[in-house]
Amino acid sequence: MTRACGSSLKKEGLRAIQGGGSSIGFHPRIGIDIMSFSRLSRMGSAIAAAVLLSACAARRAETIVAPLPVSPTPVWRLETGDQVKVKFYREPELTTDATVNRNGDVYFAGLGRVHVAGLMLDSLQADLQARYERLVLEPTLDVSMSRDIVFYGQVRTPGTVVADQALTVLGALAKAGGSTALERDPTIWLVKANRRTYALSGDARLSSIDLEHGDAIFVQGQGFLSRNQQNLALVGSMSQLLLTSISLIFTVLK
User: Fold this and answer.
1) Residues of the chain with pLDDT > 70: what percent?
2) Would you put residue 188 in left (φ > 0), alpha (ψ -120 to 50) or beta?
3) Pairing with 109, which of 23, 59, 91, 161 sits 20 to 30 Å away (CA)?
4) For the purposes of burial, counting CB atoms within 10 Å of the CB of 187, is it exposed (0-12), middle (13-18) or buried (19 or more)?
């Protein structure tokens, strides 16, 4: 597609320089200074070529970044700064809502300090279940975790949001106020701390994405050319058709 656009532009540029083959002089039947028209025709051809150039630029594939691999199972591991919540249904006094400290520990009610860094949520659930069974008869508890995620770009409220790992990317974006892009489905990128960038699916669950502290999510709407590439291509085609028709008419009349 890019090669075809380039070939078309070369032809348009050549026609603009040559003046489309129109004769130069005064036509007695219609009294038009064809020299002036020839200049106008060349100008019009140049404009048409520029419009086609814009359309071709819009059609060119943008830099494609491979989509981030999405795991069918949760991949988040607890790390410093994560929030951990343990909810007890029959012993509410044991409910804990705490943050993993810089040593990777969390203080749990009735247990004290427990090292949790590096554990996945299901492993922490099993560990706490076993620990609390020594204190409580048949404890019923749920363990959840959340993480600070930075959103920027075309976001209504850029900054940090606390997102549960069960949320989807779009669900977390909604907590940031949603996108300000004109498109219904803006492009979403995961920008890793090492500056590597990956395309994100809005439907992907956060827990299935390798999203760590220091990473950020960038939201980007399509540019003007990308949004209007079909319109630009249509305008370019119609402009060239009009100029070609006028050139043929003057060729017949000369």
Assistant:
1) 61
2) beta
3) 161
4) buried
Confirm whether 67 is domain-assigned. Answer: no
What are the strands, taking DSSP E only, across 19-167?
Answer: 26-27, 32-33, 83-88, 96-99, 105-108, 112-115, 141-153, 159-164
CA dist., res. 206 & res. 165, Å (int)? 5
* Residue 50 DSSP class: H
Judgement on whether residues 22 and 89 belong to the same structural domain of the protein: no
Cα separation of 23 and 26, whole Å? 9
Q: Which residues contact 90 (CB under 8 A, 6 or more apart)?
A: 139, 140
**Residues 37-76 pLDDT 10s:** 455 455 555 554 444 444 444 433 334 456 777 888 899 9
Residues 108 and 179 in one domain: yes
154-185: b or e for each residue (b if 16 or more CB lie within 10 Å)? bbeebeebebbbebbbbebbeebeebebeeee
**Torsional sign, CA 26, 254, 21, 236:** positive
| Full residue range of the structural domain in which residue 237 is found | 2-61+226-253
CATH of the domain at 216: 3.30.1950.10
Give Dmax (Cα) for the chain: 109
Residues 8 and 126 in one domain: no
Answer yes or no: is 70 within a domain: no
Report whether 157 contacts 173 (CB < 8 A).
no
**Among 67-71, 152-156, 220-224, the least confident range:** 220-224
Which are the contacts of 23, defined by CB distance < 8 A and separation ≥ 6?
34, 250, 251, 254
